[in-house]
C-alpha cells in the first residue's frame, strides 16, 4: 500500500514534480523540431531582410527612413525580451511562446504587404515584438524540458541552426530578391512558422501554472524605457548624432534614471519583472557578464570581418554569409564537443575558462591582420575565435538556468538573452566609433587633409568595394591600410574587453547540474516551484 504522502504530496512538491517531469528522448526530439524551426525563424529574419533592403528602398522609396526598418525591429525585440520571459514564468511557457510566434507571423505577413516605408517600419516593430519571445521561449522551454545535465545532447542542434542561419540567410535573401520579390523575404516566415506552431501545439506538454500574482507594470515600463534608450544610444551614437550631442546625452540620462528607478521599484513589488535577488547568485551574475562580452565580441566580429575581407582581401560580397564560415565552423564543432562532455561528466566550470581565453587569443590574432594577410591565415584566426565562442554560447545559458529556481526559468533565459543582445549593440557601436576614427586618421596621414576624400569622389569609407576599385591606386592603397589599421584597433580593444570575461570565468563556481529526474541538493539554487502556485498538466 502506498504511503499517504506518496499518494497526496504537499502542494509544493506536487508542483515541483509536475514542473519538471521525466520525458523520453523521443518525446523531447519531437518537441525539438518545433523549437529548432522557431529558432531558425528568429535568426534568419534580419539576415534575409538585410540582403533585400536596397530593393525594398527602390520600390517603396523613403531612403531617409531606411535605418528605422532595422531600428524598429531591434528596439521592439530588445524591449520585449524580459517581458516575455516573465509572462512565461507567470502564466505558462507554452501559451506565451505560441502567442509570440503568432505575433511574429502577423508582423511578417503585414510587412510583406507594406505599401510604403512608414507601414514597413510599423509592421517591423510588430514583428520584433513577437521576435522578442521566440528565442526566450525556445531557451526557457528547453530548460523546462531537459535538465541541465542532459542538455548537451541537444544543444548541438541550436549551434547548427546558428551556423546555418549566418551562412544561409544572405544566400536565401539574395535568391528570393533576384528570382521572386522582396515581399517573399517576409512571406517565407509563414510556412516555417506554421510548421513550428503545429509541432509545438501537438507535441509540447507543459504544466499550466496559475498564480494570483500581478504583473509588475511599473517595472515593465521602466525597464522597457531604459532598454529602449540604451538601444537608441548604440544605434544613433556616431551615426545620426555625435556622441557628445544633446540627443545622445539626453538618452544616456534617461537610461540611467529609468534603470535606477527600476531597481528601486523591483525591491518593493510582490512579483518583480526581474527579481534582483537573482544577481545575488554569483554564477548568475558572472555568466550574465560573460554573455554581455560574448555578444560584444561576436556581433563586432561579424560586422567588421566581412568588411575587411571584401575591401582588403578582395572577397566577393555576393555570398557574404560564406565569409564567416570558418568562424561558424569553429563554433559548431566545439559547441557539439562541449555539450557531449558536459552531459557525460556533469562538469562545466573549466569550459568558460578555456573559452574566454581562446576567445581573447582569437581577438589578438585577428588584430595582427594587415594588407598582406592571406585569406587562409585570416580564416585560421576566425576558427580560433569561433572555437572560443563555441565553448561559451550554450554554457552561459546552461549555467544561468541552473542557477535559478524552475519558476524563474523564463526570467533567467530572457536575462541571459538580453545581456547578450545589449552587449552586441554596444560592441557594434564602440567598434564602429573606433574603426571610423582610425580609418580617418590613417587616410589623413597617408593622403593629407585635402586628398583623403578619395580624390574628390567622396569619402572612401562610405563607398562600396566595387566603387573603391574605380579610385586612383594611391587612394585604394591608403584605404586598404586604413581598414587594416582600423581592424587592428577594433580587435585589440575587443581582446582587452574579453580579458574581463576571463576573470569572470575564473571566479565561477562548480555548482552541480540538475540531473534527469533528480531534484537538486539544497543550496544548488534549484528549488522547483513557487509554493503558492498550482500546477495543472495540460
Helix and strand layout, with pairings?
Layout: H1 4-7, H2 11-19, H3 25-60, H4 66-91, H5 93-112, H6 117-145, H7 152-179, H8 184-187, H9 189-203, E1 207-210, H10 217-236, H11 246-266, H12 282-311, H13 325-345, H14 350-367, H15 375-402, H16 409-451, H17 465-468, H18 473-506, E2 534-537
Antiparallel strand pairs: 1-2
Helix pairs in contact: 3-6, 3-7, 3-9, 4-5, 4-6, 4-10, 4-16, 5-6, 5-9, 6-16, 7-13, 10-11, 10-16, 12-15, 12-16, 12-18, 13-15, 14-15, 14-18, 15-16, 16-18
What can you see in these coordinates?
The protein has 538 residues and is mostly helical. 72% of the residues lie in helices and 1% in strands. It has 18 helices and 2 strands. It has helices at residues 4-7, 11-19, 25-60, 66-91, 93-112, 117-145, 152-179, 184-187, 189-203, 217-236, 246-266, 282-311, 325-345, 350-367, 375-402, 409-451, 465-468, 473-506; strands at residues 207-210, 534-537.
Features:
single chain; 538 residues; two-stranded antiparallel ribbon; 18 helices
Count every beta strand, where a strand is a DSSP E run of 2 or more residues: 2
Number of helices: 18
Low-confidence stretches: 1-19, 454-458, 516-538
* Major sheet strand order: 1-2
SSE string: HHHHHHHHHEHHHHHHHHHE
Helix content percent band: over 70%
Task: Tell me the quaternary state.
Answer: single chain
Shape descriptor: globular
What composes the largest sheet?
Answer: 2 strands, antiparallel
Average pLDDT rating = 77
User: For the CA atoms, what is the radius of gyration?
Assistant: 24 Å
Strand content: under 5%
Structural class by secondary-structure content: mainly alpha
Distance between the termini: 28 Å
Amino acid at each position: 500500500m502506498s504511503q499517504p504522502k506518496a499518494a497526496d504530496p504537499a502542494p509544493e512538491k506536487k508542483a515541483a514534480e509536475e514542473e519538471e517531469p521525466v520525458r523520453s528522448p523521443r518525446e523531447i526530439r519531437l518537441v525539438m523540431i518545433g523549437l529548432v524551426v522557431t529558432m531558425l525563424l528568429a535568426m534568419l529574419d534580419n539576415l534575409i531582410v538585410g540582403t533585400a533592403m536596397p530593393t525594398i528602398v527602390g520600390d517603396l522609396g523613403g531612403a531617409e527612413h531606411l535605418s528605422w526598418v532595422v531600428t524598429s525591429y531591434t528596439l521592439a525585440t530588445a524591449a520585449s525580451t524580459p517581458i516575455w520571459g516573465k509572462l512565461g514564468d507567470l502564466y505558462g511557457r507554452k501559451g506565451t511562446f505560441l502567442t509570440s510566434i503568432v505575433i511574429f507571423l502577423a508582423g511578417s505577413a503585414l510587412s510583406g504587404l507594406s505599401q510604403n516605408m512608414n507601414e514597413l517600419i510599423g509592421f517591423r516593430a510588430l514583428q520584433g515584438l513577437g521576435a522578442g519571445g521566440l528565442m526566450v521561449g525556445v531557451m526557457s522551454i528547453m530548460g523546462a524540458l531537459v535538465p541541465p545535465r542532459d542538455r548537451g545532447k541537444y544543444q548541438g542542434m541550436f549551434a547548427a541552426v546558428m551556423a546555418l542561419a549566418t551562412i544561409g540567410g544572405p544566400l536565401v535573401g539574395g535568391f528570393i530578391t533576384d528570382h521572386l520579390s522582396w515581399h517573399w523575404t517576409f512571406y517565407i516566415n509563414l510556412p516555417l512558422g506554421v510548421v513550428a506552431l503545429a509541432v509545438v501545439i501537438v507535441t509540447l506538454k507543459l504544466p499550466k501554472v496559475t498564480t494570483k500574482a500581478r504583473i509588475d507594470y511599473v517595472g515593465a515600463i521602466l525597464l522597457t524605457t531604459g532598454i529602449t534608450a540604451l538601444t537608441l544610444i548604440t544605434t544613433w551614437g556616431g551615426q545620426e548624432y555625435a556622441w557628445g550631442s544633446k540627443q545622445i546625452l539626453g538618452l544616456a540620462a534617461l537610461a540611467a534614471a529609468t534603470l535606477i528607478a527600476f531597481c528601486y521599484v523591483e525591491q518593493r513589488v510582490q512579483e518583480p519583472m526581474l527579481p534582483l535577488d537573482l544577481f545575488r547568485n554569483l554564477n548568475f551574475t558572472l555568466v550574465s557578464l560573460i554573455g554581455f562580452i560574448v555578444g560584444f565580441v561576436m556581433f563586432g566580429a561579424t560586422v567588421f570581418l566581412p568588411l575587411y575581407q571584401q575591401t582588403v582581401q578582395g572577397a566577393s560580397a555576393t555570398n557574404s554569409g560564406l565569409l564567416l564560415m570558418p568562424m561558424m565552423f569553429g563554433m559548431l564543432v566545439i559547441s557539439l564537443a562541449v555539450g557531449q562532455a558536459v552531459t557525460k561528466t556533469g562538469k562545466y566550470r573549466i569550459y568558460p575558462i578555456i573559452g574566454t581565453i581562446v576567445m581573447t587569443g582569437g581577438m589578438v590574432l585577428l588584430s595582427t591582420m594587415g594588407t598582406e594577410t592571406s585569406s587562409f591565415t585570416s580564416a585560421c584566426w576566425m576558427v580560433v575565435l569561433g572555437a572560443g565562442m563555441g565553448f561559451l554560447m550554450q554554457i552561459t545559458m546552461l549555467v544561468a538556468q541552473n542557477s535559478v529556481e524552475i519558476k524563474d526559468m523564463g526570467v533567467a533565459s530572457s536575462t541571459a538573452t538580453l545581456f547578450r543582445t545589449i552587449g552586441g549593440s554596444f560592441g557594434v557601436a564602440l567598434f564602429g566609433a573606433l574603426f571610423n576614427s582610425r580609418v580617418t586618421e590613417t587616410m589623413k596621414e597617408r593622403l593629407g587633409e585635402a586628398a583623403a576624400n578619395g580624390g574628390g569622389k567622396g569619402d572612401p569609407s562610405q563607398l562600396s568595394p566595387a566603387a573603391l576599385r574605380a579610385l586612383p591606386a594611391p587612394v585604394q592603397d591608403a584605404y586598404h591600410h586604413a581598414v587594416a589599421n582600423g581592424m587592428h584597433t577594433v580587435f585589440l580593444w575587443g581582446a582587452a574587453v574579453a580579458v574581463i570575461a576571463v576573470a569572470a570565468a575564473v571566479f565561477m563556481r562548480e555548482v552541480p547540474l540538475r540531473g534527469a529526474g533528480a531534484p537538486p541538493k539544497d543550496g544548488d539554487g534549484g528549488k522547483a516551484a513557487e509554493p503558492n502556485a498550482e500546477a495543472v498538466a495540460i
